[in-house]
Amino acid sequence: MRQKMELIREIRAMEATPVIRHKLVDLTASAGHGLLSEMSIAEVHMVMVVMMMKIMMMMIMMMMMMMMMMMMMMMMMMMMKIMLVVFHARATLVRKKI
Question: What is the rounded distance in angstroms from the CA atom of residue 27 to the CA atom of residue 34?
């Protein structure tokens, strides 16, 4: 009878203790499926950060190139205006001589 009472007391004590229902996730551990390209969540995050940095650098380079092209076009337009002014000035001088 004592053994039964002791067993019941142990069972009730076990039922009273809270059960951990969620698993802790290790972000640095891979899934362990044996694949060659298997990465942990932390590794995937780092790869994505590096890729995003590369993309941002490419976008900055493209913006700089576009700004340079716009500046070159503006310079060409200014040169064309100067050439037109010079051409008109020469044309008026030639007309006055005739």
Answer: 17
Cα separation, 77 vs 71, in Å, equals 10
Residue pLDDT tens, the chain, 98 long: 888 889 999 988 888 888 777 778 888 888 777 777 888 999 999 999 999 999 999 999 999 999 999 999 999 999 999 999 999 999 888 888 76
Q: Residue ranges per domain, the chain?
A: 2-97
- CA separation, residue 19 to residues 6, 9, 11, 22 (Å): 22, 18, 14, 9
**Two tokens at 80?**
């064309």
